[in-house]
Design brief:
Layout (H helix, E strand, L loop, with lengths): L8 H27 L1 H5 L3 H7 L7 H5 L2 E2 L7 E2 L6 E6 H7 L4 H4 L6 E5 L5 E5 L10 E5 L2 E2 L20 E8 L3 H4 L6 E7 L7 E9 L2 E12 L4 E12 L3 E2 L8 E13 L4 E21 L6 E24 L2 E16 L2 E18 L3 E15 L7 E3 L3 E18 L3 E12 L5 E13 L2 E12 L3 H4 L1 E9 L6 E7 L7 E14 L3 E20 L4 E3 L6 E28 L2 E16 L8 H6 L5 E11 L3 E10 L10 E13 L2 E8 L5 E3 L9 E4 L1 E8 L2
Parallel strand pairs: 6-9, 26-30
Antiparallel strand pairs: 1-2, 3-8, 4-5, 6-7, 8-9, 10-11, 10-38, 11-12, 12-14, 13-37, 14-15, 15-16, 16-17, 17-18, 18-19, 19-21, 20-25, 21-22, 22-23, 23-24, 24-27, 25-26, 27-28, 28-30, 29-30, 30-31, 31-32, 32-33, 33-34, 34-35, 35-38, 36-37
Length: 693
């Protein structure tokens, strides 16, 4: 098991003292911020922008930020006809988060629950789970959604946070543009161009949970035709709180990569980038076998490694006219105590945009992906058959954005055509309408039909569970989920309505409401009566089951995200999301209880409030409050907690900061662990130093 060495008593005492002092100082820091307000107000806007330009974007400028995830073409955030929320580099820096999943807490409607020291459950508008099967995740346009178990392994999606330009979060289906599995949302992590990362950067620190980390980057080039950067990062994170003292979930990672951006002329631009990583993540898993002891808990280390390389070419032919061609290769090596996956993925994507008379913007494209995986059997109760398979995806899309009234009313219609190795051709149509009566407000509505296609987990997976010993025969009794060759795509019909408005340059409000109807949802079905099975040996009793399409249901709710700038030195932000999930068995369903479990695994209420103070040109104080309601089916109670960061720009090239996370209690529970007992998420404090010469 990989883990950090136990600290000495002196270090442990120092860490306890640091936590206590930080908790006691928090109210004082808030009062100090208010006391400094008058002095901070005297700092001119020009001085503030010169010191830290991104942090001083006005709300009007933020509304004009161009986003691409909703339509694959640049459009102003204020006018986008989708529930788009942007997490900027400044948001990430001032929140003090140290991972992508923690950064996603800043977006309304995103459910983020930490399972243990290296795993998260993430969902959008419901259906949160370890693998986020209804959310499509991309990094610079590279899909990191795995077709093996339908979802995203968040512990290997590590990005140098200082290189992130923004994270665009789409609440709701993104089916027309991104294809299958973008059912409840899309998360697109977009890194900065290498021309914006010249020079050196070193960031290092540590604390009681983030026990040590170092990030380094160097970039160069001529600023126009050729630019590059290289980076390296490593961290050692300790375990969270365990009621039984079994601190298995420490986590260590080393990662490096590069990016090059170059242009041959004014029309053509090229990007080549890649990453390599190696990780050790502690975990416990349940292993079932047909020989005694039949079921046991294994403790060990996930050995995770891999890499990717991506190339992109873009030809700009004028306003609204361009071609894009992207291709990447991704290698994954995953070895857990009860499971293994070795996978090679190749992907190519083509996009063409052009204008037609009548204010029409046409976008169309084609894509192909193959993913060949090998899954050797580690324990007999969990295996894939055949052990080596190739998943395929072929897509085409067409979208027409029509400007019905110039700069006021636009209609977008389109569809995605897709085919996988498990499905025939399927369509995902979408219609979106956007109305901007003034330049400072937008009302939009949308309808989308989206699909989550079958994965190897439903079509090629066999999973056994040990029930006990049959008292009548003395034989061991198992239930086994068998591969279901008839598993169909899950379907969604989604209806959305949204409104955004900028009030008097100091208040921005975004409101989105939704109603989703689901069919053919994943279920766990008992498909027969118990019988005696002799192969695999020894002889045992088996209850047959499979993963079916036995659930239907609806979700409804809304997300509210206001931001207010009462003064140039003070920023207030909040978000509230409400979710109502109603799932049930369809006619003739054989589900054994998945409906109530799934519906009770997402919080009904989520609230986040942030207050950021710029205390002159050198000091920043950021406070965050979070409330998450209970998860009834997981027996996880509601919780409130708070984070704080105090940073000091000691020199133009040197920044020091102290970050406190989960400050309201020594630990709290956010999600259920399997196997248990549940893992508590600790109160954490770390300090860091950032050097940019």
């Amino acid at each position: 098991m990989i883990g950090a060495a136990k600290p000495s008593r002196l270090i442990a005492g120092a860490q306890q003292a640091t936590r206590l002092l930080f908790a006691l100082a928090l109210p004082g820091l808030a009062l100090f911020a208010l006391a400094c307000a008058a002095g901070a107000a005297e700092v001119s806007d020009s001085d503030q922008k010169a010191a830290n330009p991104l942090k001083q974007l006005s709300l009007a400028e933020l509304g004009n930020v161009e986003v691409t995830t909703a339509s694959k073409v640049p459009e102003q955030l204020l006018k986008a006809s989708a529930a788009v929320y942007v997490i900027t580099q400044a948001d990430i820096e001032r929140s003090g988060v140290t991972s992508i999943p923690e950064a996603l807490r800043l977006a309304p409607g995103v459910e983020v629950a930490r399972i243990d020291g290296n795993k998260w459950s993430i969902g959008i508008r419901g259906f949160g789970s370890r693998l986020s099967r209804n959310v499509l995740v991309l990094i610079d346009g590279r899909t990191v959604y795995t077709t093996l178990l339908a979802g995203t392994y968040w512990e290997v999606q590590n990005v140098l946070l200082q290189d992130v330009d923004r994270i665009e979060v789409i609440g709701g289906p993104g089916a027309t543009i991104w294809g299958p599995n973008a059912v409840n949302g899309v998360i697109n992590i977009i890194t900065r161009s290498s021309k914006d990362t010249h020079g050196a950067m070193v960031n290092a620190g540590g604390g009681n949970v983030d026990q040590g980390f170092v990030n380094a980057r160097y970039g160069g080039g001529n600023g126009s035709t050729f630019n590059y950067r290289v980076y390296g990062m490593a961290f050692d994170r300790g375990p969270e709180f365990h009621t039984d003292g079994n601190n298995y979930d420490s986590w260590r990672t080393v990662q490096g990569g590069f990016r090059m951006d170059f242009s041959q002329n004014e029309q053509d631009s090229f990007t080549v980038q890649g990453d390599m990583y190696g990780e050790g993540a502690g975990e416990t898993v349940t292993a079932v076998s047909y020989t005694p002891p039949y079921q046991q808990t294994l403790q060990g280390t996930e050995m995770l490694s891999g890499g990717n390389i991506l190339g992109r070419w873009r030809r700009t032919q004028g306003e609204g006219r361009d071609l894009q061609l992207q291709a990447y290769y991704d290698r994954t090596n995953r070895h857990e105590p009860n499971f293994a996956d070795y996978r090679d993925t190749f992907d190519v994507d083509f996009l063409d945009r052009f204008r037609l008379p009548g204010r029409q913007q046409i976008s169309w494209g084609l894509g192909a992906r193959t993913s060949r995986g090998h899954n050797p059997t580690i324990v007999s109760g969990l295996y894939f058959l055949p052990p080596t398979r190739t998943d395929e995806l072929y897509t085409g899309f067409f979208q027409d954005e029509i400007g019905l009234i110039q700069d006021r009313l636009s209609l977008s219609v389109g569809t995605k055509l897709l085919k996988t190795n498990y499905t025939g051709f399927q369509l995902q149509p979408s219609v979106r309408l956007s109305w901007s009566p003034t330049g400072k407000q937008t009302l939009w509505a949308a309808f989308t039909h989206a699909l989550r296609t079958p994965s190897d987990a439903e079509r090629a997976f066999y999973l056994s569970g040990f029930i006990g010993t049959d008292p009548a025969t003395g034989l061991p009794f198992f239930a086994r989920f068998n591969a279901n060759p008839n598993f169909r795509s899950e379907e969604l019909n989604g209806y959305e309505l949204g409104y955004r408005r900028l009030f008097k340059e100091s208040l921005y409000v975004s409101l989105s409401a939704f109603y989703n109807h689901y069919g053919d949802l994943f279920s766990e079905d008992i498909v027969g009566s118990p019988y005696i099975e002799a192969n695999p040996a020894p002889t045992h009793i088996l209850l047959p089951a499979d993963f079916g399409n036995g659930l239907v249901g609806t979700t409804s709710g809304f997300e509210l995200a206001p931001e207010w700038r009462p003064a140039s030195f003070w920023r207030l932000r909040a978000s509230y999301s409400y979710l109502e999930m109603k799932l049930k068995k369809s006619a003739n369903s054989l589900d054994v209880g998945t409906a109530s479990f799934t519906a009770g695994s997402s919080p009904r209420h989520q609230l986040t409030a942030q207050s950021g103070f710029a205390l002159g040109k050198a000091l920043n104080l950021d406070l965050t409050y979070r409330f998450v309601s209970a998860l009834p089916s997981l027996m996880i109670r509601s919780y409130s907690t708070g984070d704080a960061q105090f940073s000091w720009r000691a020199r133009s090239f040197l920044t020091l900061s102290v970050v406190g996370q989960n400050l309201f209690q020594p630990y709290h529970f956010e999600y259920a662990s399997d196997p248990g007992p549940n893992v508590g998420i600790k109160r954490a404090v770390y300090g860091q130093i950032t050097w940019r010469p």
